[in-house]
Amino acid sequence: MMRLVLHLNPNDLVLTPFNSGLAYALLLGSSKLRLSARAGTPVGLGVSDPGSASVTLENSQRQMTRLVPRPLRVAADIYDRAGRLAFSGYVSGATYGRVVTLDLSL
Amino acid sequence: MNLLLSEDLPLRTTRALGKNYAVDQVLPHRYGDLTEARFALLKLDDSRWFAADHPTIITSVFIDDQETLGWSRVVESDGAGNSWTEVHLAAPAPDSAKVSACGFGKSSVVTGALIENPADVFQDIMRIGGRETSWPRLRAECAAEGLLVAGSLAERVTIRDALDDVAKSVGAIWIPSDATLYPVSTVTGFVLDLESADADNVRVTTNLDDTADILRVGYGLEQATGRPLKSMEFTASPMLLGGIAAELSLPWLRSAADAEQVGTRLLERMAGERYRVAFSSRRSEIKPGWWVRLKNLPDWPFDHDEDPVVKVTETEVDLLSDSVEVVAEFLRAIPVVSVSSFSVALPSTVQGAVDASYRNGVATFRVLDPDRRPLSGARVSLDGGPPKTTDAQGIVTFVTTKGRHTLAVEAPGFAGEELEVTL
Questions:
Q1: pLDDT value at position A48?
Q2: Residues of A whose CB is below 8 A from B313
Q3: Inter-chain CB proximity A37 and B269 less than 8 Å
Q4: Are A55 and A101 in contact (CB under 8 A)?
Q5: pLDDT at position B348
Q6: Cα–Cα distances in Å, from B380 out to B12, B184, B371, B377, B419?
Q7: Measured between CA atoms, how close is B402 to chain A, in angstroms?
Q8: If you measure CA to CA, which chain B residue comes closest to A78?
Q9: Closest approach of chain A CAs to the CA of B286, in angstroms?
């Protein structure tokens, strides 16, 4: 099962897929998770950002804005459906509405 | 604080020392053996000069290029757990004087060993950035190759760029969870085997990005001036690209052996046949840095006896479909790379350089002045033999064997110097 873990202080918040029936079932989806090896040089390799992803979360009842009022710089891990850690980064941006989008960077 | 890799490394500045200095300067961190690479000290007052934002060893101090013996090393600390190294001069330096020093960099607080394995420097940079990360694969690879780095973090720089600078100096690629030397002539370690059913839509492309037949690398950076003191030129054989030359600075490398090893690897990648291999896979655990063997691919475009092994450089995982788009590099027909010439800087008392090349049993040396103009009339001897005088091009030749030699150079107006050279 896909999960998003936000490492809040003092406790982690584990967000599960929307309508899963589990606690904090607010996770609507995820962008593609991009990782790129960097080298600095030669120029043909490793000149882009090392990685990024974004996740969308249900917020029609302002659940996310109450749970995570200040998400910036919060450490975040995305686990794939097999339970493997697929991406580990930090919240670098957020967009608010009926859906909250968290941008993750390394 | 959780800093992103794109944010500045939180190096302390002179403001942290609690006084109002005229210019707020970054307090540098030093790494590795800098006993032959002078670094500039920051002026705190006429007698107190800042060396490093950690305890360290100073071996010599210079005032305007002249070594002075009137100094002492003082390790200061505050109540917040910070310790730093100052140099106190016995007599105040003149107002306009530049003070520099040689010494060693930071040591591990755990082992006491000098931090000079590139992976350990990576780890320390991340630690300054507030992250605990380690790169065991890179550490083991660099230890096996004997690769050491030395340098300074002495200006505002992002965490990412600081890591890049070290990575490019040793020919490494990295992501936050892994780093590895690349390219390498032989595939070592774990290789993921992918059957054709796990590698769909394979696309193989190539272009002229980042290609060259000749590579000149600068290394042995003098910290105080930011100038590479040494250079080495590599040539690929055969030249597949018409003799295109590229230049690269490897600022964290100090030894000729390391420069030769890294330069050879880099030109093997730049001069060889190199292909970008993109494919889709259900193996979403694939990460940049992995070796992947593409087995039994029906559409692989090249004749081959063995299944191709590619180095993954980019991944894009789709969690909804449990699939990954992979970009990798495939190198084939790697050329033979050899050192075609090198330049060693004379010590700072001379500030010139000697370019050396070796071909068919003849060593050619070109003596240059500080502005890199040919220096005629210099007397050059090899291994204590009879001296020869450089011509108008600054050139002198000797019939000799490959290997290590002692080169003595005397030039009008310059102090005589002896250099160890390896042909």
A1: 64
A2: 36-37, 45-46
A3: no
A4: yes
A5: 45
A6: 48, 38, 19, 9, 11
A7: 30
A8: B319
A9: 10
Q: Which of B319, B322, B326 to mutate to test binding with chain A, by most A CBs within 10 Å of its CB?
A: B319
User: To 10 degrees, the CA torsion angle through B301, B305, B307, B312?
Assistant: -70
What region, left, alpha or beta, does residue B225 occupy, with left being phi > 0 and alpha being psi -120 to 50 degrees?
A: alpha
> What distances in angstroms separate CA B13 from CA B7, B46, B82, B152, B413, one per listed residue?
16, 19, 12, 15, 42
For an interface test with B, give the residue of A38, A48, A77 to mutate (most B CBs within 10 A).
A38
Tokens 């599960």 sit at which residue?
Answer: A16
Q: How far is CA B134 from CA B90, B163, B286, in A?
A: 42, 13, 20
| pLDDT string in tens for chain B (423-residue length) | 789 999 999 999 999 988 777 778 999 999 999 998 899 999 998 899 999 999 999 999 999 989 999 999 999 999 899 999 999 999 999 989 999 999 999 999 899 999 999 999 999 999 999 999 999 999 999 999 999 999 999 999 999 999 999 999 999 999 999 999 998 888 988 999 999 999 999 999 998 888 999 999 999 888 777 778 788 889 999 998 888 999 888 999 998 899 999 999 999 999 999 999 999 999 999 999 999 999 999 889 988 889 999 999 999 999 989 999 999 999 988 899 998 877 765 544 445 678 888 777 888 888 887 777 888 888 888 988 888 889 988 899 999 888 888 888 887 666 567 777 777
In angstroms, what separates the C-alpha of A60 from chain B's closest C-alpha? Answer: 23
Picking from A4, A8, A15, A32 by the largest number of B CB atoms within 10 A of its own CB, the best residue to mutate is: A32
β-pair type (B245-249, B214-222): parallel
Using CA coordinates, name the residue in chain A closest to B161.
A40
Claim: this prediction has a pTM higher than 0.90: no
Q: Identify the helix (H) or strand (E) that includes residue B36.
A: strand B33-40
Q: Please, which residues 9-68 of chain A have a Cβ atom closer than 8 Å to chain B?
A: 29-30, 32-46, 49-51
Of A34, A43, A50, the CB nearest to B210: A43
- A50, A75, A78 member nearest B160 (Cβ): A50
Rounded Cα distance, A43 and B164, in Å: 12
pLDDT for position B416: 63
Chain center to CA of B272? 22
- Using an 8 Å CB-CB cutoff, list chain B residues near A42: 168, 210, 248, 266, 269-270
Chains A & B: contacts with CB separation below 8 Å: 118
Alpha helical stretches, state H, B272-381: none
Per CB-CB distance under 8 Å, the chain A contacts of B163 are 38, 40
User: How far apart are the C-alpha atoms of B285 and B165, rounded to whole Å?
Assistant: 28
The whole-number pLDDT of residue B385 equals 84
